[in-house]
Amino acid sequence: MKERTGSAASAPRSRRRVLGGVASAVPLALAGCLGGGSGGDGGASISPVSLDGERACDQCGMIVRDHPGPVGQVHFADDEPEGGRPAQFCSSVCTYTYRFDAEDGGRDPLATFLTDYSTVDQEVFEEGGDVMFSSHVESSAFARTTELTVVAGSDVVGSMGPDPIPFSEESDVEAFVAEYGGQPMDAEAVDRGTLEGL
């Protein structure tokens, strides 16, 4: 990866994540955990939606598209009382926090999606000394957590500060860690302790 330079206002850098051999990416799924929910195959047909427009984060209230870093959505079995739509979030941290609280309240998440930085043209920029990745709210930018590895504790922050950064390709995880540090882990292995340690 390139040396990080520039600022949000002056020189954002665009990076194309090249998807070479998909055989190098091995999902590290833990059955019954975060990505699939407890609804069996009931969530298999669920697709992510676009989070464009003036959509507010269901955890913190910020407008999703207006902030940097990964974004997320959770589809629930209880007919999505968020208003006939999936729960939507401005960061990985907000996605996980809301989901954990919902599960504690007895709700059944069928599918959880996060930005997949292996499949988007991302911009990397610095603002106030923080390194950030661009946000991507189009439906094609999302992948199920069952297909993702996140890097926790890196130098890259999201809209809410330190944020797990998701990738579907192992080579992208390795390149990211080499440049920005952090600890790779299965996206479904993230728990409240992981968030508290960021």
Structure description:
This protein has 198 residues and is of the alpha+beta class. It has a 5-stranded mixed β-sheet, with no helix packed on it. Strands 3-2-4-7 form a 4-stranded antiparallel β-sheet, covered by helices on one side. The protein has 3 helices and 12 strands, in the order βββαββββββββαβα. The two termini are 23 Å apart.
Ordered list of secondary-structure elements with their pairings:
Elements: E1 13-16, E2 72-76, E3 87-89, H1 92-104, E4 109-115, E5 121-127, E6 130-133, E7 142-144, E8 149-152, E9 156-158, E10 161-162, E11 165-167, H2 170-180, E12 183-186, H3 192-196
Parallel strand pairs: 6-9
Antiparallel strand pairs: 1-5, 2-3, 2-4, 4-7, 5-6, 8-11, 8-12, 9-10
Organism: Halorubrum cibi
InterPro entries: N2O_reductase_NosL (IPR008719)
Protein name: Nitrous oxide reductase accessory protein NosL
Oligomeric state of shown chains: single chain
Strand neighbour order, sheet with most strands: 1-5-6-9-10
Poorly predicted segments: 1-40
| Shape field | globular
> How many structural domains?
1
Name the helix and strand elements from N-terminus to C-terminus, one letter apiece. EEEHEEEEEEEEHEH
How many strands, which pairing sense, and closed or not: the largest β-sheet? 5 strands, mixed
Relative strand content: 15-25%
Topology, number of strands: 12
Radius of gyration: 16 Å
Number of helices: 3
Fraction of residues in H or I helices: 10-25%
